[in-house]
Automatic annotation (TrEMBL):
Record-linked PANTHER family: PROSTAGLANDIN REDUCTASE (PTHR43205), PROSTAGLANDIN REDUCTASE 1 (PTHR43205:SF7)
Highest taxon above the source species: Bacteria
InterPro entries the UniProt entry points to: ADH-like_C, ADH_N_2, ER, GroES-like_sf, MDR_fam, NAD(P)-bd_dom_sf
Keyword list, A-Z: Oxidoreductase
Protein's organism: Rhizobium alvei
Name of protein: NADP-dependent oxidoreductase
Length: 338
């Protein structure tokens, strides 16, 4: 069984040599167990925080173990009454080709609904986070202006498209002209702004003539600081992720004006809301997410983009690309053929 193990903790930022490809023995499944073969491995920004000591809202990944992560897997052998060979499941068994399971914590995937890899993207954790947090904490109303960062990605693309369906004016922030064109031409956003452009601040202001009512922030840092002066009174700021800020290098992108944030919160009576996908109040919306987003996907009203990397051995390098914006769409590794 080939695994990518976490073998050391990052010193400054994460690096390829924090990971090692190792082959370990795997016994056969005993009574009550199944053998899972990994088809797709999800690579997600949250994994960076897991590499450090101390954890954040979740524990650190252990050294000498497969790196943590969600997979789409197929049941290859079954000694379990509830699972048959060929069943598809989402599992949390990490960066490895095979895993044994007693069935606990597995989520069944219906392969007729959509390609099974979408269980890691638009129909999985990122899509669900985008939908549920937007509805619960963003309270979008038709006619309002919503800005979303990392807008072409797994979470951002769902947030922006759902807000469009609900009648908001949607402005996406993404890195580079190709991603920006994708937002307006393929996803139907009203405008897109390139955060790498030297005129980013002016272009964002131009794209938001009535200010910003909802900012769904996936990145933090310099992008957050550029958005802040444009928010309207009583805007809702949703702090979903801070991919621009590595906890061991705070302020590495030249930002850090906490005071500007706090005085804007006060003067404009802002609500700033942080949340985690698994919060009870967001999980309560999961059935609604599955029904509505599943329906919109089937009707072609929602689109998604995936970047598929081939081969488990290429996972570390692809993962690091998330923090450079190399991925274009939900990043998944194809580990084996269905
Ligand atoms: P994406 O598919 O959006 O990939 C990450 C993207 O982030 C990159 O492609 C890049 O896009 C952008 N990015 C990376 N570094 C920077 C930077 N320094 N400045 C600006 N943009 C940057 O990832 P996800 O959709 O999976 O995740 C998006 C965010 O949501 C992450 O912060 C993640 O941690 C968070 N998240 C939070 C959850 C929660 O429960 N709170 C659940 C799921 C995700 P570009 O080229 O456009 O800059």
């Amino acid at each position: 069984n080939r695994q990518i193990q976490l073998v050391s903790r990052p010193v400054k930022g994460p690096a390829v040599d924090n990971f090692a490809l190792r082959t370990v023995e795997l016994r056969a499944p005993v009574a009550g167990e199944i053998l899972l073969r990994t088809l797709y491995l999800s690579l997600d920004p949250y994994m960076r925080a897991r590499m450090y000591d101390g954890g954040n809202y979740a524990a650190s990944a252990a050294l000498g173990e497969p790196m943590v992560g969600s997979t789409v897997s197929i049941v290859a052998m079954s000694n379990h009454p509830d699972f048959r060979v060929g069943d598809y499941v989402e599992s949390g068994h990490g960066w490895q080709e095979f895993a044994l399971s007693d069935g606990a914590g597995l989520r069944r995937i219906d392969p007729d609904l959509a390609p099974v890899s979408t269980a890691l993207g638009i129909l999985g954790m990122p899509g669900q986070t985008g939908y549920t947090a937007l509805m619960r904490h963003g309270q979008p109303r038709a006619g309002e202006t919503l800005v979303v960062s990392a807008a072409s990605g797994a979470v951002g693309s769902v947030v922006g498209q759902v807000a469009e369906i609900l009648g908001c004016r949607v402005v996406g922030i993404a890195g580079g002209p190709e991603k920006c064109r994708f937002l307006t031409d393929e996803l139907g956003f009203d405008a897109a702004v390139d955060h790498r452009s030297p005129q980013f601040s002016d272009e964002l202001a131009k794209a938001c003539p009535s200010g910003i009512d909802i900012y769904y922030d996936n990145v933090g840092g310099r992008v957050f600081e550029t958005v802040l002066p444009l928010v309207n009174a009583q805007a809702r700021i949703l702090v979903c992720g801070t991919i621009a800020v590595d906890r061991n290098q705070p302020g590495a992108d030249g930002t850090g004006s906490m005071q500007a944030l706090l005085s804007t919160v006060l003067v404009k009576r802002l609500s700033i809301r942080g949340f985690i996908y698994s919060d009870d109040d967001l999980m309560a919306l999961a059935p609604e997410f599955r029904t509505r987003v599943g329906q919109w996907l089937r009707e072609g009203r929602l689109r998604y983009r995936e970047q598929i990397v081939h081969g488990l051995e290429n996972a570390p390098e692809a993962f690091l690309g998330l923090f450079r914006g190399d991925n274009f769409g939900k990043l998944v590794v194809k580990v084996s053929e269905p």
